[in-house]
């Protein structure tokens, strides 16, 4: 039976004859050792031949794939899977002429999916959609929250095979979460983990906090807080989510209470809830309560989910949450909440305190942005810190420029403006705002004033450079300007280092203060031993 590839037929090459070699790899090695009967050369395009000349020279005269006879190339293709043959046909015109366009037009559905997945390795801006079985641009997919309603117009996001994860994040019956996690989000986040920062989406994009005033069927309003964060478990190569839900109970929300002993009630109040497992899907959850003052209590539900490795939409871990499924774990597998909490990141107690601070005194109305009439949300872009360091670099440049001799009139004007905007442009404090969340009540006003102050400092810097060089008549102003620009660039890294060193110093001071307080509060020991201990603690 002859082989037909493209428009040419080769009757001499019969793959069945290779059975005498046994294994496919052994057959290929035998063919490569004996190529005396291969007489048809591979004809290259002249333009491609010119391109390959320097490559062949660098290779030291070694045989290239482009110099192989056509029969040998076809034998190599015989051992490749169909998706790899299609990729080989896309390399250049020579391979396309030899293999023909049928290399990818005749692919089966399974081979076509593998072919498109292979192409995404060289296309960082695209991802393979497992629903419509085609390539999509990465930029069209926004974060899981707020809901990207424009994304829902595509048929692949409205399919039964691609339901977003939002129902399992509902805190109450009838409550619709604003966090819609599609499989494409999991796929792109894991793609960055597998292939590097040029691919996929950052893990921080999955972090989100939302506060919503939910209306019950009887007209009562209940405040609900939802927070999401994600981590990648490297051992199991899977994406794990943590969702914490806060449901505020006002005095008017009367719950049915079963009478019982007061002692038993106190024990139950002070006993933490164990981590439970859902019998229907792959989820762990924990119940807790919190007293927020003003007769306001909150029920706290923390959920841990494992949504899989993001390689296929048929992943049982993903389908267990999206479509529902049985709970099946491999032997010796660890619970998802243990894997999540052991990874570096914000701890459960810190997340509990952070969410409680948002709800105390309706503080979320000041710390979060208003999304809808009764909805506030918080989603910080990762590039915010770099802007902080850039502002600090502008301040550093301003300090270096104020030492130049300036006209008296301009000096008086600039000094007054500089005195006014210097505290406002010192945006390096926002690093601690981002890490410790201490300045959240005035964050909105601070951002506006800091932005204005930043632009004013830039204008002052430009004006001071202009007047300085005009008054001094420098012999080589271009070299001085280059020096100032290089100073501006290097100061970005310097300010970043100073910020983290300052934070470390503050932590050390706090630890020393706590140690001194513990030593002061310790009961004094009578006798000479007590006096010596007191003296040693005083010296410390």
From TrEMBL:
<keyword id="KW-1133">Transmembrane helix</keyword>
<dbReference type="Pfam" id="PF00646">
    <property type="entry name" value="F-box"/>
</dbReference>
<dbReference type="InterPro" id="IPR036047">
    <property type="entry name" value="F-box-like_dom_sf"/>
</dbReference>
<feature type="region of interest" description="Disordered">
    <location>
        <begin position="520"/>
        <end position="540"/>
    </location>
</feature>
<protein>
    <recommendedName>
        <fullName>F-box domain-containing protein</fullName>
    </recommendedName>
</protein>
<feature type="domain" description="F-box">
    <location>
        <begin position="62"/>
        <end position="107"/>
    </location>
</feature>
<dbReference type="InterPro" id="IPR001810">
    <property type="entry name" value="F-box_dom"/>
</dbReference>
<keyword id="KW-0812">Transmembrane</keyword>
<keyword id="KW-0472">Membrane</keyword>
<feature type="transmembrane region" description="Helical">
    <location>
        <begin position="445"/>
        <end position="469"/>
    </location>
</feature>
């Amino acid at each position: 039976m002859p082989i037909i590839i493209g428009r040419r037929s080769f009757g001499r090459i019969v793959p069945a004859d290779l059975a005498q070699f046994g294994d496919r790899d052994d057959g290929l090695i035998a063919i490569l050792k004996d190529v005396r009967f291969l007489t048809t050369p591979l004809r290259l395009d002249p333009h491609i031949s010119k391109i390959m000349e320097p490559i062949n020279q660098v290779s030291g005269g070694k045989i290239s794939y482009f110099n192989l006879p056509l029969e040998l190339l076809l034998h190599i293709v015989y051992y490749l899977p169909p998706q790899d043959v299609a990729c080989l046909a896309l390399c250049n015109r020579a391979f396309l002429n030899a293999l023909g366009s049928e290399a990818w037009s005749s692919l089966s559905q399974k081979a076509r999916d593998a072919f498109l997945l292979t192409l995404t390795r060289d296309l960082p801006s695209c991802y393979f959609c497992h629903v419509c079985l085609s390539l999509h641009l990465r930029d069209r997919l926004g974060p899981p929250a707020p809901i990207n309603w424009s994304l829902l117009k595509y048929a692949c996001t409205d399919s039964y095979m691609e339901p977003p994860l939002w129902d399992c994040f509902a805190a109450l019956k009838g409550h619709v979460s604003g966090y819609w996690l599609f499989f494409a989000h999991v796929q792109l986040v894991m793609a960055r983990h597998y292939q590097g920062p040029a691919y996929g989406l950052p893990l921080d994009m999955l972090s989100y906090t939302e506060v919503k005033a939910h209306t019950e069927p009887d007209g009562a309003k209940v405040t609900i807080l939802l927070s999401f964060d994600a981590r990648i478990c490297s051992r199991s190569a899977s994406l794990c989510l943590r969702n914490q839900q806060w449901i505020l109970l006002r005095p008017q929300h009367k719950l049915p209470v079963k009478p019982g002993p007061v002692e038993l009630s106190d024990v139950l109040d002070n006993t933490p809830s164990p981590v439970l497992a859902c019998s229907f899907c792959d989820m762990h959850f924990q119940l807790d309560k919190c007293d927020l003052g003003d007769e306001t209590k909150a029920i706290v539900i923390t959920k841990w989910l494992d949504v899989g490795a993001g390689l296929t939409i048929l992943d049982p871990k993903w389908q267990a949450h999206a479509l529902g499924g049985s709970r099946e774990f491999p032997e010796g597998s660890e619970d998802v909440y243990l894997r999540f909490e052991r990874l570096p990141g914000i701890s459960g107690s810190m997340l509990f305190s952070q969410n409680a601070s948002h709800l105390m005194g309706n503080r979320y109305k000041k710390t979060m942005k208003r999304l809808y009439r009764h909805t506030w949300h918080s989603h910080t872009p990762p590039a915010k810190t770099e802007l902080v360091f850039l502002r600090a670099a502008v301040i550093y440049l301003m300090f270096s420029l104020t030492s130049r001799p300036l006209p008296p009139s301009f000096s008086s004007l600039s000094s007054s403006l500089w005195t006014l905007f210097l505290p406002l442009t010192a945006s390096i404090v926002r690093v601690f705002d981002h890490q410790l969340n201490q300045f959240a009540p005035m964050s909105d006003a601070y951002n506006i004033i800091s932005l204005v102050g930043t632009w004013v400092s830039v204008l002052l810097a430009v004006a001071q450079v202009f007047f300085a060089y005009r008054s001094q008549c420098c012999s080589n102003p271009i070299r001085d300007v280059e020096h100032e620009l290089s100073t501006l660039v290097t100061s970005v890294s310097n300010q970043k280092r100073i910020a983290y060193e300052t934070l470390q110093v503050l932590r050390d001071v706090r630890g020393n203060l706590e140690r001194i307080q513990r030593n002061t509060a310790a009961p004094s020991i009578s006798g000479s031993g007590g006096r010596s201990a007191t003296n040693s603690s005083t010296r410390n």
